[in-house]
Amino acid sequence: MGVVSSALYFGFTRYLWKWEWLHDKGMVAVPNLNGTWEGHLYTSVDADLIPDEQIVDNGRQIEGLTKQETSIEINQT
Fold first, then answer.
1. What is the Cα–Cα distance from 41 to 72, expressed in whole angstroms?
2. Per residue of the chain (77 residues), what is the pLDDT tens digit?
3. Diameter of the chain measured on Cα atoms
4. Under DSSP, is residue 22 helix (H, G, I), strand (E, B) or coil?
5. Three-state DSSP class for 26?
6. What does 45-76 look like in DSSP terms, one character per residue?
7. CA distances to 5, 27, 29, 43, 52 from 24, in Å
8. What per-residue string of b and e applies to 1-27 under the rule 16 or more CB within 10 Å gives b?
9. What is the 3-state composition of the chain as percent helix, strand, coil, each rounded to the nearest 5?
10. Contact 34, 75 (CB under 8 A)
11. CA 31 → CA 12, 35, 77, distances in Å?
12. How many Cβ atoms sit within 10 Å of the Cβ of residue 32?
């Protein structure tokens, strides 16, 4: 019994919870955020310390802050 429940737990926490149909049926409420996400952040770091190719000059700007491109990779279990 312990081996079966351990296998189910491992299988669910690693793989099964990501199945879209489990989300559609309301069986899993945790969103799947796996992948690479790209966006912007605002930093008070001196713009001279940020590589020029990461600084964003268009779109919404905030006075006193530098808008910078960023990305994050999420590996979720």
1. 12
2. 789 999 999 988 888 899 899 899 999 999 999 999 999 999 999 889 988 989 999 899 999 999 999 999 999 88
3. 61
4. helix
5. coil
6. S-GGGS-GGGB--SS---TT-EEEEEEEEE--
7. 24, 8, 9, 38, 43
8. eeeeeeeeeeeeeeeebeeeeeeeeee
9. 35, 25, 40
10. yes
11. 14, 12, 11
12. 13
Hey, what are 63's tokens? 């006075």
With tokens 């964003």, the residue in question is 56
> What tokens does 72 get?
């994050």
Q: For the full predicted model, state whether its pTM sits above 0.70.
A: no
Tokens representing 44 are 């008070």
